[in-house]
Amino acid sequence: MTPKHASLQLRPRRLRRTVALRRMVRETTLTPDDFIYPLFIRESGEKRPINSMPGQYQLTLKDIAEEARQVAALGIPSVILFGIPDKKDTCGSENYNPQGIVPQAIHAIKDAVPELVVISDMCFCEYTDHGHCGIINTPDSEHYTPNLPHGYLLNDPTLELLGQAAVVHAEAGADVIAPSGMIDGMVEVIRAALDSHSLEHVAIMSYAAKYASNFYGPFRDAAESPPSFGDRSTYQMDPANRREALKEIALDVKEGADILMVKPALPYLDILAALRQSYNLPTAAYQVSGEYSMIHAAAQQGWLNLEKTALESLMCIKRAGADMILTYFAKEAAKWLNS
Ligand code: PBG
Q: Are the beta carbons of 285 and 205 closer than 8 angstroms?
């Protein structure tokens, strides 16, 4: 029968009619292979729940081998580590201490599950007493620069320490170094430092377009790293900017990044899609603490279905162009997908 309306010869709903048809035309599939699970490791004290992030913990060294085994058993290929050191100082020296918390955690994971890919988040904010991501301009600093304001993050002195810390984490066995400080030149300097220490095989995952986002709120709780003054907007990007992200990404490609990351994920899918269109490097997206906590908070109220909403958010991040997703949902999502 000829339809009443000519346009009804085209009926997209034909391919949505049954579960099997929908499976056949599905363009994106989510698997545990896509996930990278963030771990917080405290140097002392006991395992502690992170209040603002239901189901997430600050672990201790004692817990780390068991955690690594669970992650691997779920089919998740990788973890990214954040250290919570006992001692913090102006230059974050615990970050380049070979006996520091992250190098110890890397050894523990590699002893327990050698095939698990260990990524080390490379930033100073968890290690400095002021909570900023590097060396701060103060009159008593050896790097004091009178032409810059007090409290300004000094770029080039920070680079030197980043190179040093990257070598320490890589020598402990990290497979990937992930500089997250948005310091100009960080990828080039870390690449050169690694290469000059026979660590050519260690990859760099650059937080290439990282925004000064309010969605990091719960993380600062988790990693005990809020800035003690000001904010991060002189180094992280302005959420209003898209072209600038492409400039940042181009620089990191030129400097030798192996994997490019956009962060946060869901509110920044346009950036992720633009990156995917313009570059051929593997692309990561970080579904940050606030994105996780929002879904949990709404689910606790009974307003959203936790499993379905979380999986939808991850699927959409992948559809927008992510080859891998750093997500606190990794373990739970892997269980849902495997069931
Ligand atoms: C450290 C770092 C942060 C996050 C990852 N690495 C915090 C920040 O930049 O303030 C945020 C992760 C999250 O919110 O889940 N520079």
A: no
Q: Per-residue confidence at 337, pLDDT binned at 50, 70, 90?
A: very high
Give residue-wise pLDDT tens across range 76-108. Answer: 999 999 999 999 999 999 999 999 999 999 999
Distance (angstroms) between ligand 1 centre and the Cα of 5 equals 54
**Among candidates 182, 147, 144, which has minimal Cα distance to 162?**
182
- List the domain range (segments joined by +) for residue 309: 28-338
Is the distance from CB of 135 to CB of 155 less than 8 angstroms?
A: no
Per the structure, how many domains does the chain have? 1
Q: Is residue 123 part of a domain?
A: yes
pLDDT interval class at 4 (50, 70, 90): confident
d(CA 298, CA 304): 6
Burial of 245 (0-12, 13-18, 19+ CB in 10 A): buried
Q: Which residues pair with 37 in a beta bridge?
A: 79
- Does residue 198 fall inside a structural domain? yes
Q: Measure 24 CA to ligand 1 centroid, in angstroms.
A: 38
Neighbouring residues of 147: CB distance < 8 A, sequence distance ≥ 6: none
Nearby residues of 308 by Cβ (< 8 Å), 6 or more positions away = none
> What are the respective helix, strand and coil percentages of the chain, to the nearest 5?
45, 20, 40
Domain assignment present for 80: yes
Domain membership of residue 249 (yes or no) is yes
Domain of residue 332, CATH code: 3.20.20.70
Q: Does the C-beta of 289 come closer than 6 Å to ligand 1?
A: yes
3-class SS at 121?
Answer: strand
